[in-house]
C-alpha cells in the first residue's frame, strides 16, 4: 500500500490528565504507569518519547465534571479510574515544553466556563513559553456534571453553546490578531520605549455574551492565535469548524462516512471564504504493535483479557448519555434508536457492520482503545492498514490513543515510527525548531483566508 | 546585630510575569534581562538561582487588567513596561518545578474571576506536579481595568469582594479537605479498585455566591490545601487573614506599625480559634548588595540614575488610585488627604518621616524597589539592617523584590545568602525534598487549629 505520493501525516498522541482515558480498566496491567499521571516526570518522559517518535502533537483531552451517567453517580468511574479523578491539562505544558523542542501541545479548553480575556492571556503565555508550539482544542462542554459545579443547573443546550463559542472566538481573534500590531514591542532601551503604545488597540467588544474593552494583556506570541483544533460533527459544529478550525478531529461509521463528513466540512469552509485545503482532518485510532504480527496479536489478546466490562459501560454511558447499568449485557444494541447512540456507534460499526452487536459485545470492544478503530500487527501490517484507512477516508492524520501508558506509545515509537518514516508518513525533524502551525499548516500565523485574520484591522492591504 | 536565638526567615523572591514589576524603568539597564519574561529558560534559571540561594518560595504577583490609572489609559504603562503587558503566572510553574526540587511557588489568583471548582483542580494539579511546593496568594481584585474586561462595569466593592472570597475559601476547603478521605485512592490492581468510592463525598455546597455539588475532580495532593498566603491590612482583610491565611504579607510606615498590624492580626487569629503562632508574617524589601558597602552604594546610585519618573508615577497612580499625571512634580504630598495615599505611603515614610515629600521625591524613591524599603550595602551591613528591621517589626521573613532581573537576585545569592546562612537565617536544605508547608509551618497539611480543617467531616475525633 505504500504510496509514492505519500505525504506526512499529522501524528498526535492522545491522552488526558487521568488514569484511564478511553481504554477500560487497563490501568490494572502490570506495565501500566498511568496511575503516575500526577507526576511531572511521567509527562516529561511521555513528551520526550513522542518527540523522539516523530509525533507532531500531544493532544490532551479534558472534561470539567465527573463521569457519572452510569448509575447516575461517579462511583463506578472512580472505582475503575475512568476519567475521574481528573487533573488540569494546561498546567502540564510548561514542564513538558522545557524538556522538548519540537513537540506541539494541543490543549482542550471549553468556551462555556472560561472568560475570553483571561483565556487569551493563558494561550499566549503558553505560546510564548513553547516558542509557538500550542494548539487549542475548542470544546463547548455538554456535561451536566460540569454545569452543576459551575453555577448552572444543567448544561447549556447544544446550539446555544455554539453561539457562545462563536462570540468567544470573535473576542479571541480581536485580542490575538487585532489588538497588538506587528512591531508594537520595541524593547528600545535607548529611547526608553518598551512598547509603542500607538500600536496597541483596545478592542471595545460589546456583544451578546461578552464585554471586553482592552487589548490582550499579553504581547503577541509567534503564532498569535494558537493552532485551532476542533472535534464535532453536528451540523452546527460543522459551521463552527468551517469558520474557525484549522484541524478537525472526526470519526465515522465507515471510511466513506468520514470522507463524506470531510467533504461537507470542506464545502462549509469554502462557503465561509476559505480555500479547500484550509482545514486538515484527523481521526482516532489505537495501534497495538510489536516486532511481528503474532506478537502484536498476543499483546492485543492480553489487553482484551484485562479490559473491564463495567469500566467500558461507564465510558459508553458517558458517550451516549444513557445509563447502561439498567440493561443486561445481552441487550441488542440495534434496537435502541436514539441519536446519541447512533452517533456514538458510528466509530465502531465499520469493524463488522453485519454483526448484531449486544451491549456486552460493545463493552468488550471498547475495552481496548474505546470506540475508535484498533490496528493490530507488526509494523508493515499496521502501516499498510493505516495507509488504506487514510486513503479511503481522506484523513490527513490520526489521534493515537493508548491501551497502556506509556507502553502503547513505546511500542509505537520502537516498531511503527521507523516504518512510517520509511514511508514518508512522519515529517522529518527540521534543523531548527519551528512553530506547530508551520508543521501543520506551513506558516506560523493564521492563513490569509482564515476568518480570524479579518480582525487585523491595523493591517493595511499593502502589508498583506 | 547577629542574634544567638536567630531562627531562619521566610525568604521569598518577589516577581511578576512582566517586564517591570515594582522598580520603575530599570528594564533599560544594560544587564536587565526582564524583557525575557516570555521565555521559559529565563524563569527556569531564576528558579534554580533562588533555590541555590536558599529561598523558600518564588512569590508571583499578578493582575488581570492593564495598569491605566495614570492618564486614564495604559499608554505610559506600555511604554515603560510597567506591569503591562502581563502574562499568566500559574502556567510558568511546571516548567520551573521540573528544574528544581526544593523551591516553593506562591501564585497569586483572585477569588473574584475564578470558579472555585476549577481553581481547586488547578491548585491540586500543581501541588501534585511539584510534590507539595505550592502556595496560593489569595487576592480579591480591586482593579476596574480587570472588571470591565470580565463582564462587570467596575470592580466589586471591597467588603463584598471579601464576602465572596470567604465563601470561595469555604468551597475550596470542602473540596480539598472534605471531599476525599485519606486512603480513598487505593490503586489496587488485584481487586480492580483505583478509588474506594465510599471515601469520596460530594460537597453539596449551596451558598450565596456559589453552587458546587461534587467532590474535587482531583485526588488529594500531599498538602491538600496549598499554603495560604494573603496580603492586605484593612480591617476586613485582617478578619479574612485570621480565618484563612498561614502567611500574611504586610507593610507599615514604621517597624512599630508593622508590629502593631501583626499583633492585631494575631489577636484576630486567636479570636478565630487559632494559636498565636499560627500565622507567619512577611514584609517587602529590596536588597542592593555587592562585595563592599561602597560597591553596593555605587550600584544603587547607578540604578537610581536610570529610574524613570514617568514609570514611577504610573506605579504610584496604580497603588493610590489617583491619576498623578494631573500634578506637578513639586506638589507636596502631605496635603493630599486621602485614605488611598496614606495607605500607600505607609511603606515608605519610615525612611525619613521628618522630610516633606513632594511627588517628585516619591517618584524618585519608587524608582528602585517601589515603596518597600531598600537595603543597600555589603553582606554584613545588609544582614545587620535586615535583622534590626525584623527584630523591631516582628516579621518572620521577607518578599525580596528586584531592581534588575536576574541581577538583583544574583547579587543576593552571591553576597548575602552566605552571610544569612552563617547567621542561621536561611533554613538548611533538607536531605529529602519536603513540602512547602513543612518548610513554613512544620507539617505538610493544615494545622489542627486552622479553620479549614473543620471541613474534614470524614475525620473522626480518634484520627485527630
Automatic annotation (TrEMBL), chains A, B:
Gene3D superfamilies: Luciferase-like domain. InterPro entries: Diverse_substr_monoxygenases (IPR051260), Luciferase-like_dom (IPR011251), Luciferase-like_sf (IPR036661), NTA_MOA (IPR016215). Pfam families: Bac_luciferase. Residues 34-396 form the Luciferase-like domain. Keywords: Flavoprotein, FMN, Monooxygenase, Oxidoreductase. Residues 423-464 are annotated as: Disordered. FMN binds at residues 62, 108, 158, 162, 234. GO terms for molecular function: monooxygenase activity; oxidoreductase activity, acting on paired donors, with incorporation or reduction of molecular oxygen. Signal peptide: none annotated. Belongs to the NtaA/SnaA/DszA monooxygenase family. This is LLM class flavin-dependent oxidoreductase.
Amino acid at each position: 500500500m505504500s504510496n509514492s505520493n505519500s505525504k506526512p501525516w499529522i501524528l498526535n498522541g492522545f491522552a488526558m490528565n487521568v488514569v484511564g482515558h478511553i481504554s477500560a480498566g487497563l490501568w490494572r496491567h502490570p506495565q501500566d504507569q498511568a496511575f503516575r499521571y500526577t507526576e511531572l516526570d511521567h509527562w516529561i518522559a511521555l513528551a520526550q518519547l513522542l518527540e523522539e517518535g516523530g509525533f507532531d502533537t500531544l493532544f490532551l483531552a479534558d472534561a470539567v465534571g465527573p463521569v457519572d451517567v452510569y448509575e447516575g453517580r461517579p462511583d463506578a468511574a472512580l472505582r475503575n479510574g475512568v476519567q475521574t479523578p481528573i487533573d488540569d491539562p494546561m498546567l502540564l505544558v510548561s514542564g513538558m515544553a522545557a524538556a522538548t523542542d519540537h513537540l506541539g501541545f494541543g490543549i482542550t479548553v471549553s468556551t462555556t466556563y472560561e472568560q475570553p480575556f483571561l483565556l487569551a492571556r493563558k494561550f499566549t503565555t503558553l505560546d510564548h513559553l513553547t516558542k509557538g508550539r500550542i494548539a487549542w482544542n475548542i470544546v463547548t462542554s455538554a456535561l451536566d456534571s460540569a454545569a452543576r459545579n459551575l453555577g448552572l443547573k444543567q448544561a447549556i443546550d447544544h446550539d446555544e453553546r455554539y453561539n457562545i463559542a462563536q462570540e468567544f472566538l470573535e473576542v479571541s481573534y480581536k485580542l490575538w490578531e487585532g489588538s497588538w500590531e506587528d512591531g508594537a514591542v520595541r524593547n528600545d532601551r535607548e529611547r526608553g520605549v518598551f512598547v509603542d503604545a500607538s500600536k496597541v488597540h483596545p478592542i471595545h467588544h460589546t456583544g451578546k455574551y461578552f464585554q471586553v474593552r482592552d487589548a490582550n494583556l499579553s504581547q503577541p506570541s509567534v503564532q498569535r492565535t494558537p493552532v485551532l483544533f476542533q472535534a464535532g460533527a453536528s451540523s452546527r459544529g460543522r459551521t463552527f469548524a468551517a469558520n474557525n478550525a484549522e484541524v478537525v478531529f472526526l470519526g465515522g461509521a465507515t471510511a466513506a462516512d468520514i470522507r463524506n463528513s470531510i467533504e461537507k466540512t470542506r464545502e462549509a469552509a469554502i462557503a465561509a471564504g476559505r480555500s479547500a485545503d484550509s482545514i486538515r482532518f484527523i481521526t482516532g485510532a489505537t495501534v497495538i504493535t510489536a516486532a511481528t504480527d503474532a506478537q502484536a496479536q498476543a499483546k492485543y489478546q492480553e489487553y482484551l483479557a484485562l479490559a473491564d466490562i463495567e469500566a467500558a459501560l461507564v465510558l459508553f454511558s458517558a458517550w451516549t448519555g444513557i445509563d447502561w447499568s439498567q440493561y443486561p449485557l445481552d441487550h441488542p444494541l440495534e434496537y435502541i434508536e436514539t441519536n446519541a447512540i447512533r452517533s456514538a456507534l458510528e466509530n465502531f460499526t465499520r469493524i463488522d457492520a453485519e454483526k448484531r452487536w449486544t451491549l456486552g459485545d460493545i463493552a468488550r470492544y471498547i475495552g481496548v482503545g474505546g470506540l475508535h478503530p484498533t490496528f493490530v500487527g507488526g509494523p508493515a501490517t499496521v502501516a499498510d492498514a493505516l495507509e488504506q484507512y487514510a486513503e479511503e477516508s481522506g484523513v490527513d492524520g490520526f489521534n493515537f490513543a493508548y491501551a497502556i501508558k506509556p507502553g502503547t506509545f513505546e511500542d509505537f515509537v520502537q516498531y511503527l515510527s521507523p516504518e512510517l518514516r520509511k514511508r514518508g508518513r512522519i515529517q522529518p525533524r527540521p534543523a531548527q525548531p519551528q512553530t506547530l502551525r508551520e508543521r501543520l499548516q506551513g506558516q506560523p500565523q493564521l492563513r490569509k483566508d482564515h476568518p480570524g485574520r479579518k480582525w487585523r484591522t491595523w493591517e493595511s492591504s499593502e502589508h498583506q
